[in-house]
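User: I'm new to structure prediction. If I give you an amino acid sequence, what do you actually give back? Let's try with this one:
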Amino acid sequence: MTPLPPDLITRLATAAQAPEGVHSVEALADLWLADHREDGGDPDAMTWSDLCVFELDAHPEELFAFCLRAIRKAENPWQVGLVAAGPLEELIAARGAAIIDRLEEAARRSARVRFALTGIWQGETAPEIWARIEAARIGAMETGFDAGGPLPPA
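Assistant: Good question. You get back a string of structure tokens that encode the predicted 3D arrangement of the chain. For your 154 residues, that looks like this:
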């Protein structure tokens, strides 16, 4: 288990009104996935778990662990796409140099991580980091998220 920092747990309970007992990245990821089983239709509607994930921005290691857990446990492409185009894309743009080695390794080991990488855009990601993302996802682009491909097994 990856524990959430105590100050973050306090903020989650106060700012995001998270239920009691959310003390690990794994618990947060599982609850976030439950809140996003299918397309809710309103892209501006935010759940408490969305607010919790926003709070993870200040904790890149925990955010990285959240993204990997959510990708691995996702039940459908929609969930993976939300992680890819949201927290993962933002993490790569903001902290790509700190996580790229581990992200590349995760992509080598997991077709599902490669699938997730097909759902991100460069945005503000540094060109040298983006080149590594493109290399890590190259074999998945034809059947990836944007191509409407099926979710690979975990």
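You can read the tokens as a compact description of the fold. Here is one thing that stands out. The radius of gyration is 15 Å.
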